[in-house]
Design brief:
nine-stranded mixed sheet, 17% strand, 989 residues, Ribosomal_Su5_D2-typ_SF, 40% helix, seven-stranded parallel sheet, 36 helices, alpha/beta, GalKase_N, globular
């Protein structure tokens, strides 16, 4: 810590209590460095940790170090070595830190007093800050992230159940004096003041030459250190994973693990910094410890993306800023396709020249603060500090030219004037300059862009891809990583096909589609664009790892599917995906859908590709198409994910439309929608009905698509009268039809259908045995009705009065899966599986589609009735009834309920009653459990003002400004496709 001043040398030794999170070794290793400097300055350090003793004692041999083995912060629970289990993390934190909170605080206050602690340091345990405050002891956090930021996205995924965790953590942190912030930091607005310090890294003990000599490794050998902190389960390392002449040092290998001769198992307590400095590159997953030490020792880092590890984008930005990182696709990690990445790493020249004495600097700040020095900064509070945390956290650590990519769950930026947020809209444009610019770039060989501004913007961005090579700082609205990948995707001398498919707003019908209901759906303005190029394998520009994979197979060019997906950085997924199209074949036949699901499930960061690449497999299996050429595909979607507006359907429909067009396939919009449903049901594995894909494919702007889902009979288009307007308001709670709630309600509905059929069969048998008469069946033609109900294909074919008269009281409220299977064998739903241990709701799940079908029919009829307040009131009432029926099924949510309540408050306010009413009804949409609410009202300026007021009130209550969906656009069938070619194609290497 340097030479102490005369005054400081007279000050008494201090007692520091240092709390360490249980999330990984990286925290413990940086604590070691700060603690070492504090002890060197003569102070006592009590470390509260769950990490092994050797992590500390190997670096600090001093009686002033005290280790207390207590774990107060579970961190993030890993589903596997590369995936965080978000819900399990929240549940574990609740179990270990929330439920016993009172006893923890009491115990920590007593312990802090017992050791006579002068100062508390936290990395980055929330409750330690509150315990320090309760004990009257100042505290400071040292970290590059905080758990309120990490858990915030988890709560969005889990719903409101654990929301209080985030507020509690932020409140605990607020008791700190200030934050000592490390490079690669995330947004941390809970802290009042911030002091930035250099990287905290462990010092080197031995030279590269000494380490290599001890390990018997010559200087001519290339060494990669596998620094994984827990390897994927069942992973077996193989000799051929490494290029010839390479050696791999393996950290954290189990004692029983057998390694090939070119892999060397390191001791559990091996000192990693020395080994890193003796290596030529590192392979592992990103964490603060690995990134900071890789930068400090200028070691190229080949990293694999982790799922739902929200600290990662910030560290990755820092790593790439200093030219020290290469991202490896997880599939290539697990299958041993390492060579192209290692060779790429050897071409890097890491250029970090910043300080690496953060441990010393932080220790000095802690000591000075404990002695009374005031480090409070002259910073603005509130919104300014939040902006600093969010924006600078990205801006200062980004690659030059990268646009800010603040995750959508954290950055709900708002306009002070309009308070409106959302995706770029697809309104018809009269902007001649944009149109002229487009026609200069491309020759249109087929199709019409229909004046859609979002299509023109997409084409403009497509034309600008080649400019990235000449001007890497002008990246447009997408990240430089995505743009670079897309820039090498197409051969500009060949034709490109473009398709467009919108998302949809579920006005009526929702989850009754799989039960055969009539549904009314509106395509929204936001849409997905897909550009596809079919090209001979010898002309395709392959990415380096894909080219190396083909070379490793010792074969000439073979068909490869390459996909770039814009927006990946916002959704915690890899921006690119590639595969040999032969992976979809077993011999000459396409693989099964089950094997395809397993194929895409291997790498969660690339699971999104199932929605896109799955269209290729479905075309192969269902239409017998054989793809002998390569396919390059760019996906750009403005349909927000997880909002219940069918982002997945728009991607599927746009992808299949573009692929079909590029291969000369003439598929009707209806047939295309059914094929896309197979993608989602069988390749992705989500049990959705067909209305999403049908609306995206067959819809028309400003009209409702009316369809009977038995399985998909389009009745036609229903005009929305001019005096009526429909909006969608996002609740901010993530929705996914792949989730358990939607699936369990669907299973309950199919169970209910089977029980009704069984009841009808018994009643029919009794009726026939008494010569066609039965006391419970007084209707004329009762036998015919029972016969139809005994062979019921769709619940929606059962009328509400028949349901109430005969079946309602005979259906159980719920049933254990095992009991149902034992009595009825199967629920006969091809896309869901009964969990025998689960309790399924039956009555509400079966009742909903029966009544919903009636409500949709009534809604459709009302749209054509005379204009009146009664008409609007009745339409709104039908929406309300649908909403509460969802809740009865268990598919409601706090957010959507709050939005519906706000609509009701507006509807019944004095202002609305005294004049013309404006808003008349609202309902949750789609699969439920969050997502978007559909609102119906009068088409007037006052209605728009009230919608904006609902946005404001919702934000005031929840902190989340909802996205507003308004307006409509044509479906994929109406759009058709564009066939385009560059007018002056750039020269390509």
């Amino acid at each position: 810590m340097g030479t102490a001043s005369a005054d400081e040398s007279k000050k008494r030794p201090l007692v520091f209590a240092y709390y360490v999170t249980g999330h990984g070794f990286g925290h413990a290793t940086r604590v070691v460095e700060v603690a070492r400097n504090l002890i060197q300055a003569g102070h006592d350090v009590h470390v509260v940790t769950g990490a092994p003793d050797f992590v500390f004692t190997s670096e600090i041999q001093s009686p002033r170090l005290f280790l207390r083995k207590v774990l107060l912060d579970c961190g993030a629970v890993q589903a596997d070595a590369l995936t965080v289990d978000r819900l399990a993390s929240l549940e574990k934190y609740s179990e270990t830190a929330v439920v016993p909170r009172a006893s923890i605080l009491a115990a920590e206050v007593e312990w802090l007093k017992s050791i006579k602690a002068d100062f508390v340091v936290s990395d980055v345990v929330p409750v330690a800050c509150r315990a320090a405050a309760d004990a009257g002891i100042p505290s400071v956090c040292i970290t590059n992230f905080s758990w309120d930021f990490i858990y915030a996205e988890y709560v969005m995924a889990a719903g409101n159940h654990h929301r209080s965790i985030v507020w509690q953590i932020a409140e605990d942190y607020s008791h700190c004096e200030f934050l000592i912030r490390l490079p690669g930091y995330c947004p941390m607005p809970a802290f009042r003041d911030i002091i930035d310090v250099p990287l905290v890294v462990r010092r080197l003990h031995k030279s590269r030459k000494e380490v290599r000599k001890e390990l018997g490794i010559g200087e001519d050998v290339k060494v990669v250190i596998l620094n994984f902190g827990g390897q994927p389960a069942g992973w077996k390392l193989k000799e051929e994973y490494l290029p010839t002449g390479w050696l791999c040092l393996v950290c954290g290998a189990s004692e029983s693990q057998q390694l090939p001769p070119n892999f060397l198992k390191l001791a559990k307590d091996a000192y990693t910094p020395d080994l890193m400095a003796a290596s030529d590159c590192m392979l592992g997953k990103i964490g603060y410890g690995t990134v900071s030490e890789a930068l400090a020792y200028k070691l190229p880092f080949v990293f694999v993306r982790r799922d739902y590890f929200n600290e990662e984008p910030f560290l990755r930005n820092m790593l790439e800023y200093y030219q020290g990182g290469v991202e490896m696709i997880r599939r290539d990690l697990l299958t041993g396709h390492w060579r192209p990445y290692l060779e790429r790493a050897m071409t890097l020249n890491p250029c970090y020249e910043g300080g690496i004495n953060g441990g010393e600097v932080a220790a000095r700040i802690l000591q000075d603060t404990a002695y009374g020095k005031n480090y409070t900064l002259d910073k603005l509070s509130g919104p300014r500090r939040l902006r600093d945390a969010i924006v600078l956290g990205y801006q200062l650590q980004r690659v030059p030219g990268r646009d800010l990519c603040i995750p959508d769950w954290y950055a709900n930026a708002e306009s002070e004037l309009g308070l409106r947020t959302g995706s770029p809209t697809a309104v018809t444009t009269e902007n001649n300059s944009l149109t002229d610019s487009y026609t200069q770039d491309f020759e249109i060989l087929h199709g019409d862009f229909l004046g859609l501004s979002d299509t023109l913007s997409f084409l403009k961005s497509l034309a600008g891809l080649d400019a990235l090579v000449d001007s890497p700082t002008k990246t447009g609205k997408h990240t430089i990583r995505e743009r670079k990948a897309a820039a090498g995707l197409f051969n500009w001398e060949e034709d490109i096909f473009v398709a467009r498919a919108p998302g949809r707003l579920d006005v009526m019908g929702g989850i009754a589609d799989y039960s055969g209901s009539l549904v009314l759906q509106m395509p929204i303005r936001e849409a997905c664009h897909v550009a596809v190029q079919k090209i001979h394998p010898s002309k395709q520009r392959l990415w380096k790892h894909a080219l190396a994979r083909q070379q490793d197979k010792g074969q000439g060019p073979t068909p490869v599917l390459q996909i770039v997906s814009y927006g990946s950085e916002l959704s915690n997924r890899g921006p690119t995906f590639d595969m040999d199209l032969s992976d979809f074949l077993e011999g000459d036949e396409p693989i099964t859908y089950e094997k395809a699901r397993q194929y895409f499930a291997r790498d969660p960061s690339q699971r999104w590709a199932a929605y896109v690449a799955g269209t290729v497999l479905v075309l192969m299996k269902e239409l017998g198409i054989r793809f002998e050429n390569s396919i390059s595909l760019l996906v750009s979607s403005a349909v927000p994910e997880g909002k219940g507006v069918s982002s997945s359907a728009s991607v599927e429909v746009a992808s299949m439309s573009a692929i079909a067009a590029s291969h000369g396939l003439n598929i009707s919009p209806r047939e295309l929608a059914l094929l896309c449903q197979k993608v989602e049901n069988h390749v992705v594995g989500a049990p959705c009905g067909v209305m999403d894909q049908m609306t995206s494919a067959c819809g028309e702007a400003n009209k409702l698509l009316a369809m009977v889902c038995q399985p998909a009979e389009v009745l036609g288009l229903v005009d929305i009268p001019g005096h009526i307007r429909v909006w969608g308001i996002d609740s901010g709670i993530r929705h996914s039809v792949g989730g358990a709630d939607y699936g369990s309600v669907r299973i309950g509905a199919f169970m209910g259908r089977e029980i009704i059929k069984s009841i009808a069969s018994k009643l029919l048998s009794q009726s026939l045995s008494t010569n066609g008469s039965h006391p419970d069946d007084s209707e004329e033609g009762g036998v015919e009705l029972l016969e139809a109900e005994a062979s019921l294909d769709y619940l929606c074919n059962l009328s509400p009065h028949r349901y109430e008269a005969i079946y309602a009281k005979m259906l159980p409220d719920s049933l254990i899966g095992e009991s149902f299977v034992g009595k009825y064998t199967d629920h006969r739903d091809p896309v869901t599986t009964i969990d025998k241990t689960r309790n399924y709701g039956i009555r509400a799940a079966a009742r909903h589609p029966i009544y919903e079908n009636f409500r949709v029919k009534a809604f459709k009829a009302l749209l054509t009735s005379a204009t009146s307040d009664d008409q609007l009131t009745a339409l709104g009432e039908l929406l309300y009834q649908c909403h509460y029926s969802y809740s009865d099924c268990g598919l409601g949510s706090d957010g959507t309920n709050r939005l519906v309540q706000l609509v009701q408050e507006m509807q019944h306010s004095k202002a609305s009653k005294s004049g013309e009413g404006t808003l008349y009804g609202a309902k949750i949409t789609g699969g439920g459990s969050g997502g978007t609410v559909c609102v119906i009202g009068r088409n007037s300026l006052k209605s728009s003002e009230q919608i904006l007021e609902i946005q404001r009130r919702y934000k005031a209550a929840t902190g989340y400004l909802p996205i507003l969906f308004e307006g409509s656009s044509p479906g994929a069938g109406r759009f058709g496709y564009l066939k385009i070619r560059r007018r002056n194609p750039p020269k390509q290497n």
